[in-house]
Each structure stands twice: as structure tokens, then as C-alpha cells.
Amino acid sequence: MSAMDQDQALTAILDPRSVAIVGASDDTAKWGGSILALLRKFHYAGAVYAVNPRSASVQGVASFASVEAIGQPVDVAVLAVPHERAVAAMQDCVRAGVKGVLMVTSQFAEAGEEGRALQDELVAIARAGGVRIIGPNCMGYFNSHADLCLLNSQALMRSDVLTRGRIALISQSGALAGAMLARACDLGVGLSFCVSLGNQADLEVCDFFEYAIADPHSQVIALYVEGLKDPSRFRSLLLQARAAGKPVLLVKAGRTDAGTRAVQSHTASMAGSYQSFAAVVRSAGAVVVDDYLDLVVHAAAWSTLPAPSSAKVAVMSGSGGGGAVACDQVAEGQLQVASLGSATVQALEPLMPQSCAHVPFDLGAVPGSYRSARANWLQDVLVTMMADPEVGAGIYVMTTQPDMAGAAAAVQAVNRLSGKPLLFVNAASSSGAEAEAVMRAHAQVSFASVEQAVRFLSDRLAAQREHALAAPPQAPQPVASGQLEAITRTFDDGLIAEHQAKQLFAAVGIPVTRGEVADSADAAVRVAAAIGYPVVMKVVSAQISHKSDIGGVVVGVADEAGVRRHFAALQAAVAKVPGAGFDGCLVQQMARADAELLVGTHWDEQFGPMLMFGFGGTLVELQRDTALLPATANQAQIGEALSRLRLYPLLTGFRGRPAADLVKLVDLIWRMGQMAVQLGARLAECEANPVMVQGASVLVADARAVWRKS
Ligand code: ADP
Ligand code: MG
């Protein structure tokens, strides 16, 4: 189907001129009853037909024996019939020239083989007849801007209006769509459209994602995703959304599959498919949210609040303690606590004593005489503080205090006046209900906790940073491809040993230690002399992957006698390992390090080459201080991710150590990524661990790879 046909089909589905409910019922406890009732309650203006051969009218709507019998064009048919009757109903829809069929019933692919066969049959009939399907096994969808509600949800049944809004909500799960929608209703947040996709027999998440990018009513896109049918399409839609200036926020199920695959390197074992997914999403400037209810809050805040101008956050509160705790959470959330400049302190003079003019601001500490002297005292204070150029965003923590509704009114006004976001946190529980109502009335979000507010701000700032870093998409740089092919031609499937992996790295311009494999003590002495003492000696054995585990690495070998002694010792060490053969000894240049890093890549089945780097050497799993990016990342993105690692200060002159040559290090990481892009799926994993860094010396001391010819 061409892109234009697809777009027309989705428009007909989301903005239909007519809808038929097949299986319409007077009983609103049934699907065919509730959907018809919802459709009418929100005053859908198009034609509505009931299809039910047993009655002439359902809920006062004229009823027909079949869709075909309606005799008028029908854009959308809702099939609310049991699965046994689905085939006949679908054939009826095809004969009637229906454009889209919403299948809400279950017992299809999700229920086993028989159901899958039935679903496949329905898809085949629909394809042949030019009909698109949503579902089956879903809750339906609505489009507020067309007053069209075909979504069976408790929240909508209790609501008098189908609130219009700017957030497109696309969910694979029907139940979670219902839960998110209920949260949106509580917050008073409108959606542009909402669709639950169920089994995605035909139309899937990406189809509606694409539609939302083009839809003028949708400004923010929120997704709940379980699995992706087409990861590369998904990735390119993320980039399209970014280009269209539409923020994308999503929750992905299946976060904890890391470590289930048998892998050879640290890189691959620490980077599960969820982590790769999250890395791809983030690098496209989109946001991964952990919880689906938070997703609604974040999306709503994104669509209503101005962008933070920096990570410096001013906390304002009705209480000193509330402000102090909030500042801790700000500092822990990769944000900074802002302070006010002297000009602001001066501007605050008519509003409070100087001793109160700071952030965290404790409005409870200001004498009542100041507050009563001015009608909009709180609003004036907040506007003045937010205007400080040192303040990038604010968080207002409302503990129980007098006039909470007034505080909310001031905060919402500040959001319109200051051009920076002032996040409202209701820390007064149900006592703050009136304040929440004020926020809702102004279409603004109340955050449930400081933590939620902090997470929103850090996510939004991270997305802003990504937007700034992302260069226009560039073709992968071919790195010495001829040489790479010549080297890899000799590779067998499986583990590639250190000296061979280093050859590969060297071919793309990555600095590696000099060294050579020696098959005798005499040869080892010759190599050591050529390199210069001290040297490092390591066992070479096709059966041994982690050399130091068996005592197979000796550093700082100082002279010829040492080389001979250790050659014999290493040979003896291998002899003790059952089934391992001794293939010689790698004699190698000794590198110095103030910091030992890991840099590696692995091939992700869904997203292709991924790049990981961080601190730790052999302790990498313990340290958990790594970054994961798509291997296509540019130097700016790599530099930024590096600077966010916990141990980054080790590279910038910690305790009198020389600062590392960051340009060299970033270049090394970038080349590794480019090499992985170049080699594709054949390079299942590769790893430089450690990369020894001391000042201007940046050298790969150990390397391994896993090769997969096919
Ligand atoms: P393994 O196979 O156990 O990972 P490595 O080659 O990484 O073996 O060596 C283990 C450790 O020895 C490294 O983490 C590093 O600290 C040190 N080391 C290895 N090679 C060198 C070298 N060329 N210069 C200095 N130290 C080294
Ligand atoms: Mg190692």
C-alpha cells in the first residue's frame, strides 16, 4: 500500500463520515451497546448505523440486517460479534466497501493456534477487499477532534465530554490505554486521539505513529509499546517526529531481559535488548518513561509547560523543610539547585526582608505584613524569582498551607508570564484538592511528587541536549574497508583472540599496544627486547577467553630472566586448564593508566550495531558506569555521554593526575562505532577492555571479538 493510500485509509478511520456498529445492542454492558452509547453521548456528527438482524432499531438508531443492507457508504465498521461470526461479518464489510474495521473481540492470535489461523483468515479477506483492520483484541479508539468515540473505557463512560487536546496516545495494550486515559481524565488533560491496537493483525503502532506526526491536532506523541514489528521503521519515525518538532514519550514493556542471552563480552551481557531500544530512542531525542501513568503526566506537562532554559532549578515552597528535601531530590536528579543573583535579590526588596530572598524560597518565613500589602504578592514573588537568568526552571512544592487554591492560581499564572516552567507539586494530598482543581481548570498539570517533577525536568533537558547534539544524519564513514575485509577474511566463527582483534582495531586507526605472539622463550626475549622493558606477557590459547582468570597475564616483566621465567609459568598455567592448548605467549608493550575504560560494540537483532563505553576494566559489571549509544553516534554525542558517567572526573585531572586527552579518547570510541557499522552483523561483539588512559596516552591493552560469518 502506498504512503498516500495508507494516509487516506487512516484518515477515513480516524475521521470517518459514517460508522456502523455490527452487533449493536440495547444492553450497554455489551460492547455493541456501550460503544454505540458512547458514540452518541459525545455527539458524533457523522452517520451512525446499527447492524443487528434481530431488531429494527437499537438505542433509537435504525438497525440493518447487514452492513451491505445499509445501502450508504460506511467508512468504519465496528465488529462487536463473537469470533465465530467474524469471518461472515468481515465478508459483509468487504461487500459494503467499508474502509476500516475495528475488531474489539478477543479469542484470536492471543488465544493460541486456532485463533491465529482465524485471525490470518480475516486479514486475508480484508487485504483482498481493501479493508484495513484495527485489533482484534483491543479496546478501540477515539478522535476528540471529530467527536468520535469508539473506545470502550470506564473513564469515558463517566465523563460528559470527550476533552480535546494535543496529545496522541497510542497503546498496544487496551487495558493500559484505559488506565492512561483515566489518568488523563483525572488531570483534565485532553488527547487528540487515542488508539489501542491489541493484536495488530494489520494496522500497528507505527502506522498511527506516522499519522500522529502528520496530524496537526497532535503536538505530543505518547506510546506504550510491547514489541516492534519493524524496528527500523520505528527508528526512522522517531527521527521524523524530531524533525517535525513533535516530542515523543514512551513506555516499553520488557525492561528486564538483560543477561538472558549467553554472550562472551561484558558489553553484550550488560546491554540487553531493552537497553538498546532505550538508547536508540534517547539518541533520537525521544523520552523513555518507566511507568505508564507517569507517561500521561509527562506528556501533559510537555504539551503545556514552556521549555526549561537550563538545568538550574529554583525550589519554592510553603515550608523550609519541603524546600530542603526538594533541593536534595533536584541535586540527585542530575539537575542543579539554582541561586538568585543580586539583581533579583534587589528586585525582591519591596516583597520581603532580604533574609528571605533566596532559594529554596520559604514563603512561610515571610512576615504577614508583606504578604497582605499586595494583592498578587505570591505571583509577583514567583515571577521575579523565575526571571533571574540563573534560574532555568522552578518547582513549587505545596505543602498544606493557607490558601492553597491561591497558590495554584499564582503558579499557573507564572507559567504563562515567565516563559520558563514552574512545576506544581501537590504535597498536601487530598487537602490540596482545590488547588489541583485550579490547575486543572487552567489545563496545567499537578505533579504527584517532587521526584516525578524532577524526572520530568531531567528527561526534558536530556531531550533538548540530544536535539542540540544531533548533526544532520550522515552516511557512515567508510573506515579502511579494504583492510578490514582482508583481516576478517582469515577469521573463523566464534571468539577472536586479542592479537587478532587488535589488528582489526589498528586498521581503523585505534591506538593499540605494540606486541607479538612468541612460540618459544627465545622468541619472547627477542620480542621483548624490540619493544623495550618493562613488558607485559599473556597466554595465547583459543580455549581461554578471560586470561587473567587463570593467572595468564603478567605485567611489568623487567628483564630477560623474567621473560624466560614467566614464559614457562604461563605455559604451566595453561597446562592446568582442562582441554586448553598453549598457542604461545603474547609479549606486549606496557601501558600506564590512571583510568581503565571499556569500549565495545555488539550487534542488536533489532537495531543493529550498538556502542558501549564506560569505566571499570575487569570490574565493569560491579561499577555499572557505562553509556550505551547506537554505534552511529557522532563525536558530540559520544563526548556528552562520556561526560555524564559517574567516574568522568577521573579523566579531567582528579587529585593532581594529568587530565586525559579527551579528544583522543572520544575519537577512539567513535572509530570503534564506525568499525561496527562497517562490519555489520558479522561483528557480533567486540571489546577493548581495558583502554588504558593516562594524560595523552590512550591505548587499548586488551581486545576480543566474536565473529559470525553468516
Ligand atoms: P583478561 O583476558 O583477563 O581481560 P587483560 O589482557 O585485560 O586480560 O589483562 C588483565 C589486566 O592486566 C588488565 O585489566 C590491565 O589492568 C592489565 N594489563 C593488561 N595488558 C596490559 C598492558 N599492555 N599494560 C598494562 N597493563 C595491562
Ligand atoms: Mg581484559
Low-confidence stretches: 258-263
Please give the number of β-strands.
31
Q: Could you give a short account of the major beta sheet?
A: 7 strands, mixed
Shape: flat
- Strand-residue proportion: 15-25%
Number of helices: 25
Alpha-beta content class: alpha/beta
Return Rg in Å: 31 Å
Proportion of residues in helical segments: 25-40%
Q: In order across it, which strands form the biggest sheet?
A: 3-4-2-1-5-6-7
Distance between the termini: 32 Å
Mean pLDDT comes to 93
Oligomer state equals single chain
Bound molecules: adenosine-5'-diphosphate, magnesium ion
Describe, in plain words, how this protein is organized in 3D:
It contains 25 helices and 31 strands. The strands form five sheets. A seven-stranded mixed sheet has the order 3-4-2-1-5-6-7, sandwiched between helices. Strand 8 and strand 9 form a beta hairpin. Helix 6 packs across helix 11. The chain binds adenosine-5'-diphosphate and magnesium ion. Magnesium ion (MG) binds next to strand 29.
Summarize the structure.
The protein has 710 residues and is α/β, with parallel strands linked by helices.
Features:
710 residues; 7-stranded mixed beta sheet; binds magnesium ion; flat; alpha/beta; binds adenosine-5'-diphosphate; 25 helices
